[in-house]
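pinned: reference chain
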Amino acid sequence: MAKGSISSSVIRRMPRYYRFLGELARQGVVRISSRELAERMGLTASQIRQDLNCFGGFGQQGYGYNVPELHSEIGRILGVDAASRTILVGAGNLGKAIAQHLDFAKRGFELIGIFDKNPDLWGTEIAGVPVSDIAEMEAFCAEQHPTVAILCIPKTAAFDTAQKLCALGIRGFWNFSHYDLRQFEDVVVENVHLGDSLLTLSYGLKSSQEPDEKSAGGAKG
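pinned: its C-alpha cells
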C-alpha cells in the first residue's frame, strides 16, 4: 500500500504497537497472536491485522507474530534508525523537561543544539547540550544542517520562527507553541496541544458520570 493512502489513524497507532512490542520483547516474549496482542492493547485482533497489513504481511498463520522481528520492523517503518539532527528552540521549563527526559536516540532523533533568547541560560547545558543565543541559530544551522526543530516558544513567535527555520533547511517541526503550523509546503508538522489532551480527559470524566445523572433525573420523573 502506498504511504499516502495509509490513514492518519493507522499511523498514529504504530508508535503504540512499537511501545507494546518493545515491552514484550524486554519481558522475553518471542511469539504472540493478534488476539493476545489485542487483549493487551485494548484493540481487536481484526484491527491489528488490518493496521499491519497496510505495511505488508508480518504474521504467519498458526504462529502469530515474532515479537522481536515485528518490533524491529515497525521501528524501521517509524524511522527510529534515522538519527535526524534536531534542534530545540525555547529552553524554558517545558523545553528543558523535554530535553532532559525524552530519549531522542531511541526514537530516531539526535538533539544537537538548544537555543533561547534568555541570556541567563546561555552557556548552561541541558542533557549535555549547551544552550546558545537564538541569534546564533542561523549560523549553527548553516554549519550543522539540522532537519528537525522542536518549538517550545510563545505562540506569537511560532510562525516567524518556523518560517525562518524552513529557510534554514528544517523539514520537520514538533511544535508545542499552541500555534498550529500548517502553512509550509514539503514540511512535516506535529502540533502538540497538551491542553487538548487534558480536555479529552475532562470529557471522559464527565461522560462517565452522565449515565448516573440521567438515571437519577429519570427517577425523579
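why pinned: The two ends are 56 Å apart (CA to CA). The first helix runs from residue 8 to 26.
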